[in-house]
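Anyone up for a design puzzle?
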């Protein structure tokens, strides 16, 4: 008997905690980035969600320093 594992869902919206995990940073850092406008988010009622595209745009905006 085989056990099938479900394929991971390709999310479009992330909770701040999920975005923190995806970015490998702390949850409070995500909230700080959202507060200062570095990481865009949307409000759905009383909750905040971060679009995958905005997470990717934030990562692209990071500058790497030369060696």
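Challenge accepted. My sequence:
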């Amino acid at each position: 008997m085989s056990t099938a594992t479900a394929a991971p869902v390709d999310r479009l919206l992330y909770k701040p905690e999920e975005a923190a995990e995806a970015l490998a940073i702390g949850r409070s850092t995500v909230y700080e980035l959202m507060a200062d406008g570095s990481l865009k988010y949307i409000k759905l009622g009383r909750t905040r969600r971060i679009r995958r595209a905005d997470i990717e745009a934030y990562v692209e905006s990071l500058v790497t320093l030369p060696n």
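A detail worth pointing out: Residues 13-60 form one domain.
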